[in-house]
Design brief:
The chain starts with a helix and ends in a 24-residue tail after the last helix. Strand 1 and strand 2 form a beta hairpin. About 20% of the residues are buried. Helices cover about 55% and strands about 5% of the residues. It has eight helices and two strands, in the order ααββαααααα. The chain is elongated. The protein has a two-stranded antiparallel sheet with strand order 1-2. The protein has about 180 residues and is mainly α.
């Protein structure tokens, strides 16, 4: 067995994934895309700066946290803010968020490693218009994605199928 073959066989899956992620991340970042932490998602930016959009995605995940929901759904939920007419308002809101995070925790919002610290910052801003705008937009932006519905066990509307009465309205196993 050659040395090259042997080294490939001894490479762990984790090493392979780390190497592939690094290579893809380098390509994607160089092509005008932004990637999330640990390269869990990537998207091309139209108007917002990559760091502004990444912070917006983290904010969305912290407002409505669902471990079982992938980052790509949060990206889709906030992608509507990546428009030229939204840049000033979103940038100002993220700047205010970062200012508050630095004031409270000594770091920018996205750099806070603990969810609890980020939530503290968000709670301090929850009455402000920017927070309310993003939170309100997420209600439809995140939960109206049909691809997310099965994750929560929602089968979709039932009217077109005769309603829920004859379709097991009482068979929800997670209600006690």
């Amino acid at each position: 067995m050659s040395t090259q073959t042997k080294s490939l066989r001894t490479m762990s899956r984790r090493d392979l994934l780390k190497g592939a992620t690094t290579a893809v991340g380098a390509f994607v970042c160089g092509a005008g895309y932004v990637t999330g932490q640990n390269a869990a998602w990537a998207t091309e930016m139209d108007a917002l700066k990559p760091e502004t959009f990444a912070t917006l995605v983290q904010m969305a995940r912290d407002i409505y946290p669902h471990d079982q929901v992938g980052d790509e759904y949060y990206v889709a939920a906030v992608k509507g803010y990546d428009k030229p007419e939204e840049v000033d308002a979103i940038t100002a809101g993220i700047d205010a968020l970062n200012d508050r995070a630095r004031e409270m925790k000594g770091q920018e919002y996205a750099d806070l490693g603990w969810e609890r610290d980020r939530v503290d910052v968000l709670r301090s801003m929850e009455e402000e218009a920017f927070f309310q705008r993003i939170r309100g937009g997420l209600v439809t932006g995140l939960y109206n994605q049909k691809a997310v519905w099965p994750i929560f066990g929602y089968e979709g509307e039932s009217f077109s199928k005769g309603g829920y009465i004859n379709r097991g309205f009482d068979d929800i196993s997670w209600i006690g």
